[in-house]
Write a structure and sequence with these properties.
The structure holds three protein chains of three kinds. Chain A has two domains: about 180 residues, Four Helix Bundle (Hemerythrin (Met), subunit A) (Up-down Bundle), CATH 1.20.120; about 55 residues, no CATH class. Chain A starts with about 30 loop residues before the first helix and ends in a 6-residue tail after the last helix. Chain A has ten helices and two strands, in the order ααααααββαααα. In chain A, helix 1 packs across helix 2, helix 3 packs antiparallel against helix 10 and helix 4 packs antiparallel against helix 9. Chain A is an all-alpha fold. Helices cover about 55% and strands about 5% of the residues of chain A. Chain A is elongated, with a radius of gyration of 29 Å. The relative contact order of chain B is 0.11. Chain C is an alpha+beta fold. Chain C is about 35% helix and about 20% strand. In chain C, helix 2 runs antiparallel to helix 3. Chain C is elongated. Classes of the chains: A mainly alpha, B mainly alpha, C alpha+beta. Chains in contact: A-B, A-C, B-C. At the B-C interface, helix 3, helix 9, helix 10, helix 11 and helix 12 of B face helix 1, helix 2, helix 3 and strand 7 of C.
């Protein structure tokens, strides 16, 4: 073969003395690999910030439009738990950064220890979170959802079903109120679409038809929208009025009559802290993996980038919490 | 004569398979399923995307068939007050839109052609993160799987835009589809990250930013959008799923939510998404038009920077999808003003392509036929966008067939035609085979004729008041619909011929030389198909658009570089000493 | 083809646009034309140049030399700035028209529009309600838009206006119709996808002269009789249908008809001939059971409407309190009495057992041209036509 150079054709796996084991074959130098990884992780962190930005945006919109909901509902959160979590995460960021430094200096044992402390902080954070969530579950302060009593108020004493048709109608309605796809997602096997029961009753299936002079008017089973400040009948609010017992504190920080739609605050709370919690768990898995690799001896002063990058991820997770905490827990009482 | 020929020229008619290339480098199912070679990943994407295109296209044919008759040719209801039967039609048009957008147009060019071409065109051995690249592909497959599952569990009927509160209440399998799209979003993000890092860090010596071919600038701008915009789609879809599962009350007014908020979140991603779709196609245009005019692309700097400008300004205009939807007057005004500015970088590109053709040497090979189609169709699409960006006119045209025609002209006439141009352009490089030019051009012609027959009448019927997403319509619009459907069937024939062209090439095509078209970008200086490692030696980086020393060689029916001719436009750089084994 | 010709022949209609019939049409059509001509010009320039180049500069040999033209900065700046200025002119023209669309006049007549899956309903200032939109020529009008379930939109192509109906908030469009409508009216479409019946959700808009308009408003305010705008035939509205309309106007905020949920009061669905429990009765011995005769049920419902606090029901374990006083709306005149009877008839039809109207809906008694004096189901009408409400199948 006529070639411009006389290099042998095969690239082979033997990269020679200047292609160390940790250097991937498509990179020329370790510096190039490190720089690429660094740029890559920063891009990924940008995407994480943008992911949470949607939630922060929703928070801003609802707080701007309904400050009363936030001023009232945040009292159900315990800010001491929140503060504890903040301190734990900030401390864990410190140990994480130190761990990266230790890895860079080749201090294997110290690195493993610091990573372990960071991991333990993550566990503490999740435990505090679990306690908080459990409190909410106990008080039934939850998004409406299919299992909450809020939307499906419990029926009174069961009236004997004299009429088979009547029984069928209420069975159909219960099926209709479930969103079938979600039931499938949750593992149960509700069939996807409710089929229209047979005549002779006029009200069938998901639509209501009024037969009169041959004019059929279809209506849908979509819940009626509420306009303006009337909101939804939030009867659960009245059963859980904030008082000193619920707060676990001494003074009753009562801010007046409860506003409607307070469930929105808790929806935002659960979504934001829930998504953040998932990221904490992901971060903990990454720390465990990097701990293992450090212990195994994969890293050296020449190559420690995975520790560095996991550290960056952990810092972002911490940073997001630092924004979450004041926004959710420390809303002022001036309203 | 010291003509220097590339290193395969020992036996130009040697069948491709005898030479060691990326296709025969290793064999077996696992060598493809677990490959880290960007070229093989690109091929897998290409197959997946074309399959999805076929499925989405079949749905489109069903949609158009339904609309042959005012009361519905396929689904109609004898009872004028019962509309349950139209649910199937609604599911079909929803799936057509969702599949085309999320499974074809967004991943198509970056995944299939970008993956294959970008490292070679750049002069690198692979992308920065090959394993992440493979993971992106499997995320695509997983997302597609969820989309298919959603069809089985009660196909979605919300429209591809999933507007709340209909999407939070409908009984169809919205969560399955939305979860699939969520996963596809991550595939898109990781691909974008990979390309950005590759272009920043893996350029060979001498390849400065302004020596990069314009396709790379386009893919770079696309990747920026992918990385920044797609996470917002992710959180939007997550919130939609939470709304359905837990009734959180973000978007559903029955629980105190705000439907218009959903629209803001959704379009914040989906408008930049359309630029994800069009920018790579524009990059292909720069390459194809430059090559087949045998001339330097005019205004390189403006074209390169216009891609970045489109990416940036594209983030600022999402509200033009919502002028009559309940946002404030002030917001509408700002969005309209900015929407007008985003039209300008695209216009700049069109002027530059025209100027490239001026006094060039234009050959109408099949890729160039598609490029000419693109210019025609994208110009119409872009100009009709101006109508929609104008506030008072948009009030009349919003959610009518005018919008449908506009976006088909830019997405199909723009992105898809650009994709086809790219496939036909890089086909010899990817497969090592040539195709039958006559057949290829016939396919292009039929697609062009069919496309215009389908969508030109839709502009008129839209401005005459025909709303979109209608399963039935008033009789006065029927002539337009009939013409539109006839065009759809012509397109079908065109696509069949285009597919036959490529299949025939695979089975019986002539062996391709390294550089059949005479392009000066780096991918044409390695063999067709490329070797496993792309380059046996780090390539010499020159001006990517200097065709002056590419001469036609009848023996191999391709172009070769003759360095004795004319001073190259820019100086070559040293080839650095390579470590053994590279 | 006829449709195409018909459309083109309509007054002022062009190839692109239907006729304009409101004060918004002028600015919109003007903006349309400016944009069309300018963009059309650019389209022909681009495509023309391209075709010219393809022919003039076609490749002659594979090794053609081409001039090395890489850029021309002044030219590139010009072809950036000029289009930018042009499009911003378009923006300005559109903005002016948009302001007019978006700014309601203070002297506009207000019509409430309610959208639901899948019909529009228009409520006029005099309380009349109808599925179609009736407007007075040259009178500025403002439509207040509401939706009860999902997103809808109201689109009047001929008026060049549309807006979304967003559940949970009220939006508006306003304009002044400038031309009289033809007999069949003009279209009103829903343009925001809303489910199965999206393409079936349409209405008509009629623009009438003063005399016709006043007559129409009077006719609409009379809920008992309806006139078909196309055929001109009048019909009496069966009480079940009228009851439904009155329900939507007066009772729907507190009583459900689609399910057995308590909104505020007991649901009407399944109410007729359902065993009742009371938490308060003015007569402590009063009971109401499914087996009680029609007369007792009629009397109970009448009392519930006129004296709602006489008996309070317990339903689904909840003790419900009374409701506000509707006696002035549903008693005191023959009309009000008949409205009340219509509501009761509607409640009857919502019972769980099969419902058959006393007078078949297709009966000629409902032809108001033939029997103009009395509604067949009214007290007077029953007497005049020698009908009874006892002609029900047994066991109802």
């Amino acid at each position: 073969m006529t070639t411009i150079t006389t290099e042998p054709a095969s690239h082979g796996d033997d990269h020679g003395h200047d292609h160390p084991k940790f250097l991937a074959h498509h990179f020329e130098t370790p510096q190039q690999q490190f720089d690429s990884g660094k740029l890559g992780i920063w891009l990924f962190l940008t995407t994480e910030i943008l992911l949470f930005s949607g939630l922060f945006c929703a928070y801003s919109v609802y707080r701007a439009n309904h400050p009363e909901i936030f001023a009232y509902a945040h009292l159900y959160l315990n800010k001491w738990y929140g503060a504890l979590n903040t301190i734990v995460l900030i401390f864990s960021s410190f140990t994480m950064a130190w761990g990266v430094r230790a890895s860079q200096l080749g201090q294997k044992k110290l690195c493993v220890g610091l990573l372990g402390i960071t991991f333990a902080c993550g566990i503490v954070f999740m435990c505090v979170k679990a306690v908080e969530y459990h409190d909410k579950w106990r008080e039934q302060i939850l998004p409406p959802g299919p299992h909450s009593d809020w939307y499906n108020p419990p029926k009174g004493p069961e009236e004997p079903k004299e009429n088979a048709l009547e029984a069928k109608i209420s069975a159909d309605e219960t099926a209709r109120n479930k969103v079938a796809g979600e039931a499938a997602l949750a593992g149960s096997s509700t069939p996807a679409a409710s089929s229209a029961p047979a005549a002779p009753i006029i009200f069938t299936g998901p639509t209501t038809r009024l037969a009169s002079d041959g004019v059929l008017v279809e209506q849908s089973a979509v819940p009626k929208a509420q306009i303006g400040p009337t909101g939804i009948d939030s009867t659960w609010n009245r059963e859980h009025a904030p008082n000193s017992a619920a707060l676990g504190g001494s003074s009753a920080e009562h801010v007046g009559p409860e506003p409607y739609n307070t469930h929105i605050f808790f929806s935002i709370y659960f979504l934001m802290t829930g998504l953040h919690g998932l990221h904490v768990l992901a971060g903990m898995s990454l720390i465990a993996w990097v701990m293992y690799r450090t212990h195994r001896g994969d890293f050296s002063p020449a190559y420690f980038s995975p520790v560095d990058f996991v550290g960056l991820y952990w810092h972002i997770v911490d940073l997001i919490w630092i924004f979450l905490f004041p926004l959710l827990y420390l809303i002022g009482n001036s309203q | 004569m010291t003509t220097i020929t590339p290193d395969f020229a020992h036996s130009p008619r040697e069948p491709a398979l005898v030479r060691d290339n990326y296709l025969n480098h290793s064999r077996g199912f696992l060598s493809w399923a677990l490959t880290l070679d960007h070229k093989r990943i690109g091929i897998m994407y290409l197959c997946a995307v074309l399959t999805a295109f076929f499925v989405g296209g079949m749905f489109a044919e069903l949609v158009r068939t339904q609309l042959l008759m005012p009361n519905g040719a396929l689904f109609h209801s004898a009872d004028p007050n019962s509309s349950a039967v139209y649910k199937t039609y609604n599911q079909i048009f929803t799936l057509h839109g969702a599949i085309m957008i999320f499974l074809v147009l967004i991943p198509g060019i970056p995944g299939a052609l970008g993956n294959f071409v970008l490292p070679i065109m750049l002069g690198a051995k692979d992308v920065a993160f090959p394993r992440l690249n493979l993971f992106s592909f499997y995320l695509y497959v997983t997302g597609a799987l969820f989309a298919v599952l959603s069809i089985i569990f009660g196909a979605v009927d919300t429209g591809w835009t999933f507007y709340a509160p209909y999407s939070t209440n409908t009984e169809t399998a919205v969560s399955w589809m939305v979860f699939g799209v969520f996963i596809l979003g991550f595939s898109s993000i990781l691909t974008g990250m990979n390309f950005i890092v590759t272009i920043h860090k893996l350029r060979p010596p001498g390849m400065t930013w302004f020596r990069m071919p314009l396709f790379l600038w386009a893919v770079y701008a696309t990747s920026i959008i992918q990385v920044l915009a797609t996470p917002v789609l992710g959180i939007t879809l997550l919130l939609l799923m939470m709304e359905r599962l837990l009734h959180v009350g973000i978007f559903n007014s029955a629980y105190g939510g705000d439907p218009v908020l959903f629209q803001h979140f959704f379009w914040f991603y989906s408008h930049p998404a359309v630029y994800i779709m069009i920018l790579p196609a524009m990059g292909i245009m720069s390459e194809v038009i430059g090559t087949f005019s045998r001339k330097h692309v005019f205004g390189y700097r403006f074209v390169a920077l216009s891609s970045i400008a489109i990416a940036v300004i594209g983030f600022l205009v999402w509200g033009h999808h919502m002028f009559p939807n309940g946002q404030s007057t002030m917001l509408g005004t700002i969005f309209s003003f900015l929407t007008m500015t985003v039209a300008i970088p695209s216009a700049i590109k069109v002027w530059n392509w025209l100027a490239t053709m001026y006094r060039g040497s234009i050959e109408l090979a099949t890729p160039m036929c598609y490029a000419i189609s693109f210019m025609f169709l994208f110009t119409i699409g872009g100009l009709t966008g101006v109508f929609l960006g104008t506030l008072s006119v948009d009030v009349h045209l919003h959610d009518t067939y005018f919008v449908v025609a506009h976006f088909h002209y830019v997405m199909f006439g723009g992105t898809l035609i650009g994709f086809l141009a790219g496939i036909y352009y890089w086909w010899p490089k990817i497969t090592g085979k040539m195709y039958n030019e006559t057949l290829g051009k016939l396919g292009c012609l039929l697609i062009f004729i069919g496309f215009n027959t389908t969508f030109l009448p839709q502009f008129v019927m839209g401005s005459q008041g025909m709303p979109r997403r209608y399963a039935t319509y008033q009789a006065m619009y029927q002539p337009y619909h009939v013409m539109s459907t006839i065009g759809a069937y012509i397109q079908l024939v065109g696509f069949i011929i285009a597919a036959i062209t490529l299949l025939q090439s695979l089975l019986k095509g002539k062996t391709a030389p390294a550089n059949p078209w005479g392009s000066a970008t780096l991918e044409w200086s390695c063999t067709s198909p490329p070797p496993h490692d792309n380059f046996k030696t780090t390539p010499t980086v020159g001006d990517p658009y200097d065709h002056s020393n590419l001469v036609w060689d009848d023996k191999i029916e391709g172009y070769v570089r003759d360095n004795t001719l004319a001073e190259p436009y820019t100086t070559t750089t040293h080839i650095p000493k390579q470590p053994a084994g590279h | 083809m006829n449709c195409l010709m018909h459309m083109l022949a309509a007054d002022n209609a062009t190839f692109w646009l239907p006729r304009g019939a409101s004060d918004l049409a002028g600015p919109v059509d003007q903006a349309w034309n400016i944009i069309l001509y300018v963009t059309g010009l650019f389209f022909f320039i681009v495509v023309g140049a391209m075709l010219f180049f393809i022919i003039r500069y076609r490749r002659r040999t594979p090794n053609d030399a081409t001039p090395e033209i890489t850029h021309n900065t002044p030219l590139e700046i010009v072809w950036t700035i000029v289009p930018l200025l042009l499009v911003e002119v378009f923006f300005y023209v559109g903005f002016k028209g948009f302001l007019r669309y978006d700014t309601p006049r203070s002297d506009a007549k207000i019509i409430d529009v309610q959208g639901r899956q899948w019909a529009f309903s228009f409520t006029y200032p005099n309380g009349a309600q109808d599925q179609d939109l009736y407007l007075l020529k040259d009178e500025p009008v403002r439509l207040n838009l509401n939706s009860t379930d999902v997103l809808h939109a109201i689109y009047l192509p001929v008026m060049r206006t549309q807006r979304n109906l967003v559940p949970g908030r009220e939006t508006q469009i306003s304009f002044t119709p400038t031309d009289l409508s033809p007999q069949e009216g003009w279209w009103v479409f829903c343009t925001q996808y809303c489910g199965n019946g999206h393409s079936r959700m349409f209405s008509h808009v009629y623009v009438l002269a003063k005399a016709d308009y006043d007559e129409k408003m009077k006719e609409l305010a009379n809920p008992f009789k309806k006139k078909d705008p196309i055929t001109g035939k009048s019909r009496w509205v069966p009480y079940v249908e009228l009851g439904h309309t009155l329900y939507q106007q007066n009772c729907s905020s507190c009583h459900s008809v689609t399910d057995d949920k308590i909104v505020v009061g007991p649901p009407w669905k399944g109410l007729w001939k359902r065993d009742h429990d009371f938490n308060y009765r003015d007569d402590p011995t009063y009971t109401l059971k499914a087996s009680d005769p029609d007369d007792k049920w009629n009397a109970y419902l009448t009392e519930s409407i006129l004296k709602p606090n006489a008996k309070l029901v317990t339903y689904q374990g909840k003790a419900l309190s009374g409701m506000s006083d509707f006696s002035s709306t549903f008693s005191g005149s023959e009309t009000n009495d008949e409205k009340r009877r219509a509501i009761i008839e509607y409640i009857k039809s919502l019972g769980n057992l099969p419902y058959t109207p006393a007078i078949p809906p297709d009966s000629t008694y409902y032809d108001a041209d033939k029997y103009p004096d009395h509604h067949p189901e009214s007290e007077a009408g029953l007497k005049a036509n020698a009908l009874t409400t006892q002609s029900q199948p047994a066991g109802r």
